[in-house]
DNA sequence: TCCACTAGGGTAAACGATAACTCAAATAGG
DNA sequence: CCTATTTGAGTTATCGTTTACCCTAGTGGA
């Protein structure tokens, strides 16, 4: 910068003014300096600006683990917004480890992060208090557990998703629909289940407790609970999996038993992660607009950083049904199982 | 820091010495200051250190697109190493857009990145020249196209992987093995094919050109080329997909035609991305040690940043066969296709 | 007893940019 | 023609740390 100032025959102040497009510089001088800047391969020193202005140009995204499902969709959305904003995205995985988490938190607090995106489940949101206390702007993604939370959150209409999924299966003619939920201590899991119940009740169908299985959003649960459902005296004709990973488990269990999807069993998932379209057959699922949620969260955060106040603290995006090929009309008669 | 110095009755210099564990401070004083630091909730200012020391504590990972396959595994490995090193990971996706790429490059050059991890294919590596020129340490991940590259690269034994996959299928008794390669202008795609050829030749089996299909590593290619293979007068009994995404395509095509895996068709993939274990049936594949590659790359970069010279410029990690459930002995007789 | 040396600790100048403030010249109005 | 005002540009302090360098008191040897 000094170099440029020297070459232009002005002071660094003037160059700085040009660089930051501030008033107080003559038209000709501005143009001359501008040209000089463009010619040279000068780039502003990040550290110095950061030190002086107090903004690092960095936004942190914290998550438990890079998994390639839920998290990935969000990241894509965040990336998209940040890319254009001039902010850079720092990714940090806590690996569910408290120590690592504390380490990260300490690093954040040195003013090296302009804002934080929290992609953490339930308990961990104690972090939120610290951030709140330190005055670091942040937005939490995923559904708040307690409606009282005092910080901005982004979620999606989970209940409606559960309802829609069930309603869709009903519309295809299914009457016995199994559901493999997530851990029922999570509100989001309960929301899905509540939607399922509501849809059944509206259709005048009694909820059979035997058709409700609890999982913990892992593939293994999908396998295990599907087997349990299949071993029922009167197995369901469709299975609603609480998320797509569990749906993959359902696929595996059915495949082993030589049960065709969707001819003999319909399967519907939840989330619409990247690989659900890759499954065979492509998975019909309830889409959470993950990218959109990421975008939204990033935009909210940016506004927060800019000092604007948010109109609403909690934004809920619409889930939607994505019809692919894993659902069809119910089979007639019993399952023709194990024909190998 | 001033505050701490005041409380300890010393100068900031001394505090700084304690903070950085440098000599020139008495034992008692050091202990006293140390205690004071721990008590207070002081955190060093990142910007100031950065400015003074010239190190930002940031490492950039550039990739084309967050996809959840290859990239994700690498990221996980990188994350793991960086987490412990005190560096933070900045993720940037170029979206294959030159402008975006240039934008990023400019931002990197302001000394705000201590090092770069390049996860870009072939052509784009022109970036490498700029980095080289600017003296920014970096490591490229994925296989170098030209063996002459003057910068550090990390790859894996692709050729061997192709060989192993084919050999495995042969050992199961397959004699007609289809292969869906990646774009053949990429060395890595050709390496797989070369391994395939070698294995066949060693087994004394003539290579049938009709069994070799070119794809571009996308799911759709898997579908299309599988159909082509199935429509052959004498279709293969096994398919070797160039990557796992294509293997997913193979699954879909086979599913549509009601062809069972592995009973009627064996399928083997390449990469071992996160979702390959999720497929139904779980995919047997050639594992590229993605996490390990990420770790390795990060470690090399760290060493480079520390000013050490690397023993070797190019590191190649071993691929390995991961046997799951998608391969079996060849079917006897023709395909019993379309029984629905 | 005196001197040279060392260890502990302080001073002040960077690092590169920004911003509040100051100053000089040009301009406009009376 | 002189003064008030605007405008362009420079001075200098500052952001929070680190570090090259300096100083002082204490120690050991002659």
UniProtKB/TrEMBL annotation, chains A, B:
PROSITE patterns: HTH_LACI_1, HTH_LACI_2. Pfam families: LacI, Peripla_BP_3. CDD domains: HTH_LacI (cd01392), PBP1_CatR-like (cd06296). The keyword Cell inner membrane does not apply. Keywords: DNA-binding, Transcription, Transcription regulation. GO terms for molecular function: DNA-binding transcription factor activity; transcription cis-regulatory region binding. Residues 1-53 form the HTH lacI-type domain. This is LacI family transcriptional regulator. The lineage of its organism: Bacteria, Bacillati, Chloroflexota, Ktedonobacteria, Thermogemmatisporales.
